[in-house]
Design a protein that fits this description.
Elements: E1 5-9, E2 12-20, E3 24-28, H1 39-45, E4 50-54, H2 72-86, E5 92-97, H3 98-108, E6 116-122, H4 131-138, H5 140-143, H6 148-160, H7 169-176, H8 181-193, H9 197-206, E7 214-219, H10 227-236, E8 241-245, H11 252-255, H12 257-272
Parallel strand pairs: 3-4, 3-5, 5-6, 6-7, 7-8
Antiparallel strand pairs: 1-2, 2-4
Amino acid sequence: MELDGCLSWKGREIVWGKAGSGPAVVFCHGTPWSSWLWEPFADALSAEFTVYVWDMPGYGRSSKDPAHPVDFGVQAEVFTALLRAWELDRPHVVAHDYGGAVSLRATLVHGVPYASLLMADVVAIPPSGSPFFRLVKEHPDVLSKLPPYVHESVVRTYIGSAAHRELRESDLARLTRPWLGEEGQGAFYRQIAAYDEGFLASNEALLGNLDIPVTVVWGTEDAWIPLATGERLAAAIPGADLTRVPEAGHLIQLDAPVQLATLLRSWLGRVAGR
């Protein structure tokens, strides 16, 4: 999919792409990922749906200005601005990782109406964050000064740990590439340092207000965020379903692509009547 759209928002450049026709489906990525993880799924659905992908500021191909905050609150404001710019009427939203908290905040705090919400292995409620995450939060300035070859090794190991299966070298290289170089290295540690669990607590307190179809999908082998968190999230949302995906870790898009694509199509068939 071509990411040929760009929204200018408060000095940021947010890159996005659109394809297909039919009911709107918007994909939200997480950290340290980008829209690239969702592009194959969006492409597959574009025959029946109008699909949108976007890179959050600080990620992927969007701007990475060190002066711009990249916390949950800002990203939810960006997502709200994007949806309004696209003039979408109650889109179906699909979120992974950090995108869960962002999409929840956009609807629960900013009042953006959705038709449905599917959340896969999301950062949405506390507690969250790996030991590495906590280390970065305590020493963001030190780690951002690592020699480039050490930094690259750290990022590759960290990203690799998100998958239950060994990643193909081409996929690992593609996921690592945005975080290399002076700009990428700084952005990598800034987005972790910006993590604020207070936003997750705020989301959790409002989950009972969700009145749309919601499904939660979770890899049973997620080493970053345990299945128990997904079970607690689904239990807190009125009427939510939980689907467990065996032999899948946090990078469910790469661990179980066929199962996830099948779940997405089945879910959208039910909630969009397609």
